[in-house]
Amino acid sequence: MANLPAHTTNDPKPWDKLPEETALWYDRFLTFISLGPARSIEKLYRARSEGQETSLRGKRSSSGWHTKAQEYNWKARAEAHDKANSHELLAAEEKRRIEARERRRTIIDALIDKVNTAIDLADLEHMDTATARLHLQTLSTALLNLIKAHRLEMGEPTEIQDSNINAAATIQFTADDLAAAQRQLAEYNRSQEEAHAPA
Predict the structure, then answer these.
(1) Element (H, E) at 112
(2) Alpha-carbon distance 79 to 37, whole Å?
(3) Pseudo-torsion of CA 33, 35, 38, 44, nearest 10°?
(4) Cβ proximity of 55 and 36 under 8 Å
(5) Which residues of 127-152 are buried (b: 16+ CB within 10 A; e: fewer)?
(6) What per-residue confidence (pLDDT) applies to 9?
(7) φ, ψ for residue 161 (rounded to 5)?
């Protein structure tokens, strides 16, 4: 059964039950409404035969269904209902998109943490360039792809650019770059520890 908008006045709505409309056909009309803008009599018949009216035996609706739909002006009444509820439908759809985006961000953040952890465990300080190229290319590629996915979800540019050199030039990071940066960081940290060690 469709979720009908709340009445703000006592004025009848187009989707209200018509005086000449029987309870059965009005209930079918409410199912018709619930099918959304892509509704049809055939879809209605399938929905009813698989749900509230399993006693319906035919594979397709009879001409009587189409006759009643025309007699009770279902198409126009259903469209009036859609129009009255359009703002609620749009709000609900936007909420679903936001929730889906947040779920994707959570997954991406978790995967970035896992890749970073894997890189930290690789002991890059003691890894030669050839080994880094062999083992870290997959990790570095995965990390860059995840960063791009995260920036895409945030509505940010997916490429990192050096605006001081060329706005169209994209900075590329390789496994060698990653290993070298890790070594430099390790050497810097070691020198800082030695400088501040007690004499």
Answers:
(1) helix 74-120
(2) 8
(3) -90
(4) no
(5) beeeebbeebeebbebbbebbbbbee
(6) 52
(7) -120, 150
Q: Where are the domains of the chain?
A: 23-94, 122-195
Contact by Cβ (8 Å): 15, 80: yes
Amino acid (1-letter code) at residue 79: E
> Which two three-digit tokens encode residue 175?
């496994």
Tens of pLDDT, residue by residue over 1-53, are: 445 544 445 678 999 999 999 999 999 999 999 998 899 999 999 999 999 89
How far is it, in rounded angstroms, from Cα 56 to Cα 35? 19
Who contacts 144 (Cβ-Cβ below 8 Å, separation ≥6)? 173
Please give the Cα distance from 44 to 69 (Å, whole number). Answer: 11
First to last CA, the chain: 81
Q: Are 136 and 175 in contact (CB under 8 A)?
A: yes
Whole-angstrom distance, CA of residue 172 vs CA of residue 21: 69
User: Helices 63-71 and 41-50 sit at what angle, rounded to 10 degrees?
Assistant: 110
103: burial class by Cβ within 10 Å (0-12, 13-18, 19+)?
exposed
Mention every residue, 6+ apart, whose C-beta is less than 8 A from residue 65.
41, 44, 45
